Amino acid sequence: MTAVKQLLDLNSFKNDTARLIGAALVDDSAWQKLAVLCDSFGHRMNGTPGQLMSVDWAYNEMLREGLENVRKDPVMVPNWIRGDESVTLLNPYPRPLVIMSYGNSVGTPKEGLTAEAMVVSSFEELASRADEVPGKIVVFCPPWTSYPDDEAWKNYLDLRHFRISGHAKAAQLGAIAVLLRSIYPPHARQAHTGALTYTEGVAKIPSAALSPEDALMLERMHRRGQPINLTLKMQARVEADIESANVIGEIVGREKPEEVIVLACQFDSWDSGVSAQDDGAGAIVVWESLRLMKKLGIRPRRTIRTLLCTNEENGGSGGIAYRDKYRSQLSNHIAMLEADSGVVPPLHFRVSGCDETIALVKQIGSLAKMLGLEDTRSPVRIGTAEDIHASVEAGNIPSLTLQGNNEPYSRYHHAHSDMVEAVSPVELARATAAVAVIAYVLAEMEERLPTGKGEGARGTYAG
Fold it and tell me: Which of these, 252, 303, 274, 261, lies nearest to 435 by C-alpha position?
């Protein structure tokens, strides 16, 4: 690591950071705002009344709170509609299994598809049994790997290629549909959704997640040589793109208003649960950080902007639209932070940038130690900065994320259990305080962070 030019005197920031921490922790205001979001609008999937109403609500609330330059930037988003869905195991007696269609999947005929199912653990096994595939419903049940830490997250990264391309590989061999064991540990017999993309020139077949418990049962039946016959019904369809919007509010800098710190999070969701952890909580964190500064009369040198992005889940068009609209201003984006990993402890910040940036952010992060956050780490983790990724890459901007614990978070990710009760009021308040502190110091410090994204925002987009 090259030598850092200088470190900060944190004492000059401690008065206002203490005020921010106190204001965040004194009550459950952040959680109550999250509860209003989740209770009033339900899920916020593209094209639904919940999404459109929640965008208007956020805009009007930011105006009421006195944030500045509040606006809705229009964004075109996909309009995939799930419809009713079911799968029934027909033998040894009819019983329903738990599924959830993957976003963008086609549906089945109205009467459904009834066929024999074949269970495979890998693409290699699928290829080796190619002669069995035509006319079948392929069930992927890949093996789960034990890791000493971050087990659910690492398996998610290891196995999501089954969701991304399993339908194409099966369709090329003549399968009529695909079911995939949800890429999470068994928990409450629930399926987790996500996005898929069809391959040009390959037949589009229905694709859905199957609860881990049901997938493992089918795998056991397969090993015993029992016949597996299923009826799959999915009414999923795609309609024309529709307009949504990113919501933006600011506290304008007192000396360098053109220099901007961006605090971002997705504001859309899938239609499972009400998406409290993924990621209503993160949206409230980046929004409440500005409201606290406004309430306390704190106006730092630089502008702090909250960005609630639409359509992170199904294509990332909100983040891309932000990059395109503000491309000429990206050179004055000092840093971009995303909070899209829930607020499950232990929490910590991650940073990507040049050596000096990393050292400075780690020093600033020490102010959050009193909140119980762990040491700041580098780089930003892959897949945790989807909304800021396009801008970071285009503008060579340092990036940060607020990182939660992926193990309990995975129980709620894209699942029906992601309700507001999944979020702790204490952890939400701590996360809000921590983001407010780090944003304030980045905006108030005399010198700007040096330009350079380092390893970048580590976006992947793969739903």
Answer: 261
Q: Count the residues in the chain.
A: 463
Reported as a single tens digit per residue, the pLDDT across 84-118 is 999 999 998 999 999 999 999 999 999 999 999 99
Residue 114 DSSP SS3: strand
3-class SS of residue 293: helix
Tokens standing for residue 237: 């369809």
Give catalytic residues, as residue numbers. 312
Nearest CA among 161, 152, 230 for reference residue 414: 152
Asked if residues 37 and 229 have their Cβ atoms less than 8 Å apart, the reply is no
Domains observed in the chain: 10-79+240-444 (3.40.630.10), 83-235 (3.50.30.30)
Q: Name residues whose C-beta falls within 8 Å of residue 420's C-beta, 6 or more positions apart in sequence.
A: 31, 34, 35, 38, 39, 274, 276, 280
Round to whole Å and give the CA distance between 237 and 255: 51
Residue type, 321: A
Q: Are 291 and 67 in contact (CB under 8 A)?
A: yes
Separation of alpha carbons 315 and 320, rounded Å: 9
Query: Cβ atoms within 10 A of the Cβ of 370, count?
Result: 13
- Say what the pTM is: 0.93
Residue 149 pLDDT grade (very low, low, confident, very high; cuts 50, 70, 90): confident
Residue pair 73/321 in contact (Cβ under 8 Å)? The answer is yes
pLDDT at site 409: 78
Q: What are the start-end ranges of the E strands in 158-236?
A: 177-181, 207-210, 229-234
Residue 352 · residue 456 · CB < 8 Å: yes
Q: Tell me phi and psi for residue 402, to 5 degrees.
A: -95, 115
- Give the closest residue to 152 by CA, choosing from 413, 381, 350: 413
Q: What is the pLDDT of residues 7-55, one digit of tens each?
A: 888 999 999 999 999 999 999 999 999 999 999 999 999 989 999 999 9
Separation CA 117–CA 139 (nearest Å): 7
Among 316, 309, 295, 326, CA closest to 263:
309
Q: How many contiguous H segments (helices) and E segments (strands) does the chain have?
A: 12, 15
Residue 276 DSSP one-character state: I
| CA 112/CA 91 separation, integer angstroms | 17
Of 37, 21, 28, nearest to 283 (Cα)? 37
> How far is it, in rounded angstroms, from Cα 281 to Cα 402?
11
